[in-house]
Amino acid sequence: MLKHLKSNDKPIYDLLKAEEKRQHEGLELIPSENYVSSAVLEALGTIFTNKYSEGYPGKRYYGGQMNIDPLETLAIERAKKLFNADHANVQPLSGAPANLAVYFAWMEPGDTILGMDLSHGGHLTHGDPRTAAARVFNFIRYKIKDIETGEIDYDQMRDLAKKHKPKIVLAGFSAYPRELDYAKIASIANEVGAIAMMDMAHIAGLIAAKQLKNPFDFGFHVVTSTTHKTLRGPRGGLILSKGIVSNPLSPVEKKIENIPTLIDRSVFPGLQGGPHDNVTAAKAVAFKEAASPQFKIYAKQILKNAKRLSEQLMKKGFKLVTNGTDNHLMLVDMITSFNVSGLQAERVYDAIGLTLNKNMIPDDQRKPFSPSGIRLGTPAITTRGMKEKDMDQIAEWMYKAITHKDDEKYLNKLHKEVIIYCKNFPLPSDF
Ligand code: DSN
C-alpha cells in the first residue's frame, strides 16, 4: 500500500505516516471530526476522481456518464431514504457552499435570514459579518435565553421574525448541546411567510439513526449538512428538501414546491462546476452504512458517552454551558472552571494527546483566538469502540492535566498513559 506515494513523493508520504501515528496515538475529541470506514476511504481513493460530470444524472454537459449517472442516482436515493426527504443534492463540496446554495436558491441580494448567533452556538455561515454571504444578505441573529438550561429564546426569535420579515428562518449550530424545538421554529417561519431551514451538519448521524428528531417531521422545507461529522462519511456537503423534483435545466418560479429545482440550479451552474465523483461514491457508501443496525448502536453510544463524559466533567468542577448535553458535544467555560483560557486549555490537552478545540461561549468577552471555552465531543472516540468507563478515564485525564498545566514532566507522564490506552482502540481503517 502507498508504494507509489512513497517512491514518488517522500515528503507527502512522511507527513501521512506522521498523521497516521497522531490519529492512532491520540484521543480525537473535536465534535465535528470522525474516522471513516475502510470502504469510505477506498471509494475516495478511486479513479472516479478522473471524471468531469457537470450537470445532473441524465442531464450532463460531458459524455461518458454511463457509470457516474447511476453512482450519483444511488447516492441521491440513499440520502433521501435516510432522511425522509423528497429530494437530495449530493454535489455540494462542503457545508458552507451547501448553505450558500440554499440562500441563493431562495433569496435575492438584500433579503433577510434569521439565524443563530455565532457565540451562542450558531455557525459562521449563519451570518457572521466576515462571511461572503453577509455581504450579500441581511442576517439577523437570535440567541439562547438562558445559559444554564441553554434554551433558545423562541420569543425573541418570533419577535425578530415579525420585525424583520426574513425569507429564511435558519436553525442549526456548531456549538450547541441541546435538542431544538423544530415545531416551534417551523411555526415561526410559517407565521412570517419564511421557509424553515435546518443546518444539521453536527447531528446528521444522530438524526439518520433516529436518535435525535428529524426536522422534516415538523414541517421544515430544507435541511443542509456536511457528510463527515457524526454521519461518518467523506468531507462533503448535502442538501435535502421537500417539494416537487423536476427538470433542473428549466427555470422555475420561486415557489415552495419548486425548492428542489431551485436548489439544483443554485448548486450547478449557480455556485459550483463539476462535482467530485469520487466523493459522491464515498458519500453513497456512508449513507448505506448509516442506514445499518450497527450505525444505530453507534449513534446511541455517542449519546451515552457524551452524557457520561459531561457528568464526570461536571463532578470534577468543569462548568458546562447549559449544564450538560442532549447530543454529542459539550461546551466548557474554562475561565469560570479553572481560570484558564480556551487557548491555554487546548494547548495543555494537545500536550497529552487529547485533541479538542477552543471555542467562544455565549456573549464571550474574550477574542475568538483566545476565547473562554473549549468544545469537545464523542463521535470519533465512540467509533474507536470507547464506552462509558472510558469516558471516566478521559474526564480524569482532563482534570489532572488542567490542574497540573505548568508541570511538563507530569503532562509527559499523562501523554504516555494516553498513548498506551489508545493501543486498545484501533481505527476503522485498520481493519
Ligand atoms: N468547522 C465545523 C465545526 O468544527 O463545527 C463547522 O463547520
Helix-strand blueprint:
Elements: H1 3-8, H2 10-25, E1 27-28, H3 38-44, E2 55-56, E3 59-60, H4 68-83, E4 87-89, H5 95-106, E5 112-116, H6 132-136, E6 138-142, H7 154-164, E7 168-172, H8 182-191, E8 195-199, H9 204-208, E9 222-226, E10 237-241, H10 259-271, H11 277-290, H12 293-315, E11 319-320, E12 329-333, H13 334-338, H14 342-351, E13 354-355, E14 357-359, E15 373-377, H15 379-383, H16 388-403, H17 408-422
Helix pairs in contact: 3-11, 4-11, 5-10, 7-8, 12-16
This protein binds D-serine.
D-serine (DSN) binds at residues 32, 95, 123, 174.
Structural features, described:
The protein is an alpha/beta fold and 431 residues long. The protein folds into two domains: 42-290, 3-Layer(aba) Sandwich (Aspartate Aminotransferase, domain 2), CATH 3.40.640.10; 297-422, Aspartate Aminotransferase, domain 1 (Alpha-Beta Complex), CATH 3.90.1150. Helices cover 44% and strands 13% of the residues. The strands form four sheets. A seven-stranded mixed beta sheet has the order 4-10-9-8-7-5-6, with helices on both faces. The protein starts with a helix and ends in a 9-residue tail after the last helix. Bound molecules: D-serine (DSN). The site of D-serine has 4 residues, from loops. D-serine binds at residues 32, 95, 123, 174.
